[in-house]
């Protein structure tokens, strides 16, 4: 010890007093500085170490402050509002999923029983799909003028009225009333699809496909549970003195009405109106003049993808219960196959949304074509109306439809400006509904003329038309 200070061996062999340069001794408390000089090599080395440490601390501090910008209040409020809107939409979609399952599962069987022929069994699907086309225009225009809340609520209420009409027609044995009611019932299907656009109104562009997917996947629960309630709701209908096949329409009427109430009461603030207000405020603040006045280049591709996937899906799906029934399977088997199909239509949505956000919509649109082709091949080669391969085929059919719908919806939403978004989306869904009508009407005729395998194979091949459209869009960009 020298002068009562701790020492360590110096670089030149003598003692080095640590506090002479203002450094702490790692082995003990800080000591008072001393005036005793250090050897020159030790002074030089410690001075360089001090400068390096100070420079490192300054750099780390600067990086910390630059890399973590705090979110603004407006960003936080928007995120909270978007979560609330998605929650309300999810609740309404669960209910409406149960509602739309009725027409898919027993609509064709109900018509077949009343008309006594298979050739017109695809007519119910065509009618409620045509009704959904008209409803898509009405819901889109009302949403564009007044907001998503009144548009969606009105659509679901109309679907509930259609369900009541179907029940009345079956009870009276009136085919004309049945077809008119199925047309009105289609409003529920249109509204269920229009809801996906509401989920995207306030979504961040980088997460838009995932927001759409969140709304779509909510339909899975109701869509899977609904068809499997065919037997118990049929028993309930019989106890009420109604034909057993009307049981699912009892369920759909109640489900659509509850979905309308959920939206009318809790979808606040209205996502489309709020998005427009925010866009107007941003434009006024920044004096922006470069916002697009018309649709972007993705609109046509998005429409084509969704039209083709809808046509193929509806055609094969509509005649599968009839095909099963022709081979001796009952309503329970058809309900199981349709339940798996609806699950595959909506359950993959979160994964599909992530893939679209990460890789873009065009690759997923191409994947939908390949998946639909696989579905057609499996359905066409299923022997003797076997339930297992047909269930697998309809699961693939649902997945292909899901890929096309999420990719196409994202393309359209990105391409259309807010001012005309709801109106354009409604018009697009009209084209989708017309494609579904064509598939539904044509499917019965094709099966009557050439059989179910020919229908399934033709549908899979038709889906391949998506591929050259995707390639052409890629070349243009």
TrEMBL record:
It holds the Pfam family MFS_1. Gene3D superfamilies: MFS general substrate transporter like domains. It is found in: Cell membrane. Keywords: Membrane, Transmembrane, Transmembrane helix. The keyword Cell membrane does not apply. The chain crosses the membrane at residues 85-110, 122-140, 152-172, 178-199, 211-230, 242-267, 301-320, 326-347, 359-380, 392-416, 428-448, 454-474. Residues 85-477 form the Major facilitator superfamily (MFS) profile domain. It is a multi-pass membrane protein. It comes from the Bacteria. Its main location: membrane. This is MFS transporter.
């Amino acid at each position: 010890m020298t002068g009562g200070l701790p020492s360590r061996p110096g670089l030149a062999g003598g003692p080095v007093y640590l506090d002479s340069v203002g450094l702490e001794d790692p082995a003990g408390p800080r000591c008072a500085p001393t005036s005793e000089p250090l050897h020159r090599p030790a002074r030089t080395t410690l001075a360089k170490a001090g400068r390096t440490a100070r420079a490192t601390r300054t750099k780390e501090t600067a990086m910390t402050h630059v890399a973590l910008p705090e979110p603004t209040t407006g960003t936080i409020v928007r995120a909270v509002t978007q979560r609330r809107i998605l929650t309300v939409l999810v609740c309404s979609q669960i209910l409406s999923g149960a509602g739309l399952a009725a027409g898919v599962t027993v609509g064709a069987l109900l018509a077949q029983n009343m008309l006594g022929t298979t050739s017109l069994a695809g007519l119910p699907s065509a009618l409620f799909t045509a009704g959904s086309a008209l409803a898509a225009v009405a819901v889109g225009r009302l949403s564009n003028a007044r907001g998503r809340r009144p548009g969606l609520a009105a659509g679901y209420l109309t679907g509930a009225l259609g369900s009541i009409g179907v029940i009345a027609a079956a009870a009276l044995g009136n085919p004309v009333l049945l077809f008119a009611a199925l047309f009105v019932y289609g409003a529920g299907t249109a509204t269920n699809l229009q809801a996906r656009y509401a989920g995207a109104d306030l979504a961040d562009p980088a997460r838009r496909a995932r927001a759409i997917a969140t709304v779509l996947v909510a339909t899975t629960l109701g869509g899977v549970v609904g068809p499997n309630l065919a037997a118990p709701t049929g028993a309930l209908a019989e106890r009420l003195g109604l034909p057993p096949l009307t049981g699912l329409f009892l369920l759909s009427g109640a489900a659509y009405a509850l979905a309308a109430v959920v939206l009318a009461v809790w979808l606040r603030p209205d996502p489309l109106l709020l998005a427009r207000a925010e866009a107007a405020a941003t434009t006024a603040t920044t004096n922006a003049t470069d916002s697009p006045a018309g649709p972007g280049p993705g609109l046509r591709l998005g429409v084509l993808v969704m039209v083709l996937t809808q046509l193929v899906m509806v055609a094969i799906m509509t005649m599968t219960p009839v095909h099963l029934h022709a081979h001796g399977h009952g309503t329970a088997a058809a309900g199981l196959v349709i339940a798996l199909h609806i699950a595959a239509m909506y359950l993959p949505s979160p994964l599909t949304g992530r893939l679209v956000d990460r890789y873009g919509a065009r690759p997923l649109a191409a994947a939908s074509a390949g998946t639909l082709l696989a579905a057609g091949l499996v359905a066409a080669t299923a022997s003797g109306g076997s339930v297992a391969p047909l269930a697998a085929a309809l699961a693939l059919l649902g997945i292909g439809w899901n890929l096309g719908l999420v990719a196409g919806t994202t393309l359209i939403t990105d391409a259309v400006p807010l001012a005309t978004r709801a109106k354009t989306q409604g018009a697009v869904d009209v084209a989708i509904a017309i494609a579904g009508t064509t598939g539904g009407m044509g499917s019965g005729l094709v099966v009557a003329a050439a059989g179910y395998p020919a229908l399934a194979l033709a549908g899979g091949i038709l889906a391949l038309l998506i591929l050259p459209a995707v390639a052409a869009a890629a070349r243009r960009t």
